[in-house]
Design goal:
CATH topology: Chalcone isomerase
Strand content: 25-35%
Structural class: alpha+beta
Number of helices: 3
Helix content: 10-25%
Strand order of the largest sheet: 1-2-3-4
Shape: globular
Number of domains: 1
Largest sheet: 4 strands, antiparallel
CATH superfamily: Cytochrome P460
């Protein structure tokens, strides 16, 4: 799958200025299936159809765990909050390098937020 993370521009400006996420920051993660033999032919793989997407909300006041995840699948317009104990949430808590987010995979954020820049 190809994964694309997006952040609302105002939240990104706040992050750059303050070095932390503002309460209410929303990250969108889109999961795309891949197409290995596109036409016209290109090197590598390209996006095919959208498989699902997730909204990750960081809000220390609203959520007891400081964050909430909502997974939208199959063209759904609404989604319930993913319960704690889910493998995705456990991975964010265990392996994400910055405040439950995987900035280690994104050079612009990694170099700004992580002490060694990994």
């Amino acid at each position: 799958m190809i994964q694309i993370v997006q952040m609302e521009p105002g939240a990104y400006r706040y992050l750059k200025q303050h070095g932390n996420y503002a309460d209410g920051t929303m990250l969108s993660l889109s999961f795309y299936n891949t197409q290995e033999k596109p036409s016209p032919a290109v090197d590598g793989v390209v996006q095919k159809d959208l498989a699902s997407f997730e909204i990750h909300i960081l809000d220390r006041e609203k959520y007891s765990d400081k964050r909430a995840f909502f997974l939208f699948q199959n063209g759904d317009n609404t989604a319930g909050m993913i319960p704690k104990g889910n493998a995705c949430i456990d991975c964010h808590e265990k392996d994400a390098e910055y405040d439950g987010t995987f900035v280690q995979f994104y050079p612009v954020l990694r170099d700004r937020l992580l002490p060694e820049g990994l």
